[in-house]
User: Which sequence fits this backbone?
């Protein structure tokens, strides 16, 4: 079965529409000229429009200074007309990622990267502001009723915005979780031992469907730009018939679509927190 993202995203957005939230504004710090980031940006704009939310685009050139970036970030933190902030990767120039996590207002942190929101995720079972991509992957599995409780799940990837928060979200759902990464030896052999595989490394073709056991599910969170300019994931299905043997999410059209719906969910949660709710 193909785990298409649109039905899961539509279900979440329908639920969000019922809240009657006023128009909100999201500030996006965008690395100009990055092909993957350009793809993400268009998808964000399309998702925001579905709830009549708007975007303030802050373009970052490759030689942008840290001082200029943090001045703009502090301004967005203070601006009452901005309810959410997202900083897209890769960061240009000499901007330190850890400083972004310290300086972004946790109540405007739509992607859950601030150390405050990360601490709540790891130290508690609270899932109020959670990295969009990680939560999107879980919601995609839940929409298609892929069992997680008691199942063996392999997360391939260890980033602070996808792999590690996904590990915690899966633990919250009583899965037995193993974390691997691009340098794990015998990864192809390991993949075949799990009921669910979530791959998020940014390495095209790292996981092959021939290594996935019958009936297992694969969530492909990777996004890469191939030599022909087309988007592809980290997972390679052997052919279209693999959807009869295993469950997997396509790229594009899979987990990324749900990620943008979670962005809307988190923006609304940020607004609620700013209102003291």
Assistant:
């Amino acid at each position: 079965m193909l785990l298409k993202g649109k039905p899961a995203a539509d279900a979440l957005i329908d639920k969000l529409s019922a809240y009657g939230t006023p128009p909100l504004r999201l500030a996006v710090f965008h690395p100009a000229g990055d092909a993957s980031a350009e793809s993400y940006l268009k998808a964000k704009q399309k998702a925001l429009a579905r709830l009549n939310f708007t975007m303030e685009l802050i373009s970052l050139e490759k030689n942008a200074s840290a001082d200029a970036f943090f001045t703009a970030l502090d301004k967005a933190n203070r601006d009452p007309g901005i309810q959410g902030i997202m900083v897209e990767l890769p960061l240009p120039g000499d901007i330190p990622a850890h400083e972004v996590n310290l300086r972004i207002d946790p109540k405007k942190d739509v992607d859950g990267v601030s150390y405050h929101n990360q601490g709540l995720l790891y130290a508690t079972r609270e899932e109020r502001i959670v990295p969009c991509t990680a939560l999107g992957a879980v919601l995609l599995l839940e929409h298609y009723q892929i069992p997680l409780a008691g199942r063996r799940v392999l997360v391939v990837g260890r980033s602070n915005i996808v792999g590690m928060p996904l590990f915690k979200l899966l633990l919250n759902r009583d899965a037995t979780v193993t974390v691997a990464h691009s340098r794990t030896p015998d990864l192809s052999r390991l993949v075949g031992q799990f009921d669910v595989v979530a791959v998020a490394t940014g390495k095209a073709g790292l996981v092959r469907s021939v290594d996935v056991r019958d009936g297992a599910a694969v969530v492909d969170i990777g996004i890469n730009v191939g030599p022909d300019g087309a988007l592809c994931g980290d997972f390679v299905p052997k052919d279209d018939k693999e959807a009869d043997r295993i469950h997997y999410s396509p790229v594009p059209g899979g987990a990324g679509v749900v990620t943008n719906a979670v962005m809307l969910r988190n923006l609304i949660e940020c607004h609620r927190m700013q209102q003291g709710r």
About this structure: The chain is about 40% helix and 15% strand. The chain has two domains: 19-128+258-274, 132-254.
